[in-house]
């Protein structure tokens, strides 16, 4: 069923019995994009977004995971929609979804960072936002052990980005400007519009809502 965007939930298990371990059950969900507002559309005007129903879908997913005995829950980003920023509802929307996900009996939950998180929450506020997207020392990329046989490698795809930074002097923002200046400078002129004009298809990734990672992270 459609969530806020193209949200999907699933549960899968990996059988490690051959190597002496028990199966690991992992639940995945992406693009919840919840907001307490009427249905709308995505940026392109093509995909319908059922903002309020997204919370019901998240709760139904939690019920399914609990019945399946999921041990690890991975929320793949865009947990609330960017429209919450203009509604002044970022904190209440985030609290509603994290409360719903918090009902999952999984012993571990990992939240990844999407562009919609950064429309609503500054990077500096992520460690105290209620999202479990930071490891030791507040780092947003890390490895997390899941059991004796498996660990999750969590990347921060917005380490370099035009969104989420409180100051344009931040190194991650400055690097994103450098990349955009070389790859798609029309983005830096602002004013919205068609960021793809004159861009070959393989360069369409250089837009304001995407990000990049450092060699150190990789």
TrEMBL record:
Cited InterPro entries: Metallo-depent_PP-like
Annotated region described as Disordered, given as residue ranges: 1-20
Biased composition (Low complexity): 8-20
PANTHER family: MANGANESE-DEPENDENT ADP-RIBOSE_CDP-ALCOHOL DIPHOSPHATASE, PTHR16509
Protein name: Calcineurin-like phosphoesterase domain-containing protein
Organism: Zooxanthella nutricula
């Amino acid at each position: 069923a459609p969530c806020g965007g193209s949200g999907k939930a699933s549960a899968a298990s990996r059988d490690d019995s051959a190597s002496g371990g028990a199966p690991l059950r992992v639940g995945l969900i992406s693009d919840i994009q919840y907001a307490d507002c009427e249905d709308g559309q995505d940026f392109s005007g093509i995909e319908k977004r059922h903002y309020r129903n997204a919370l019901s879908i998240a709760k139904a997913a939690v019920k399914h995971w609990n019945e399946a005995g999921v041990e690890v829950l991975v929320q793949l980003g865009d947990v609330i929609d960017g429209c919450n920023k203009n509604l002044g509802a970022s904190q209440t929307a985030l609290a509603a979804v994290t409360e719903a996900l918090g009902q999952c009996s999984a012993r571990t939950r990992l939240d990844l960072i999407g562009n919609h998180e950064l429309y609503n929450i500054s990077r500096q506020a992520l460690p105290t936002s209620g999202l479990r997207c930071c490891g030791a020392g507040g780092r947003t990329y890390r490895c997390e052990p899941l059991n004796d046989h498996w660990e999750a490698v969590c990347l921060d795809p917005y380490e370099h980005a035009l969104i989420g930074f409180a100051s344009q002097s931040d190194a991650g923002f400055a690097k994103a400007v450098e990349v955009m200046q070389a790859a798609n400078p029309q983005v830096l002129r602002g004013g919205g519009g068609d960021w793809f004009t004159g861009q070959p298809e393989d360069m369409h990734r250089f837009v304001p809502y995407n990000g990049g990672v450092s060699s150190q992270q990789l």
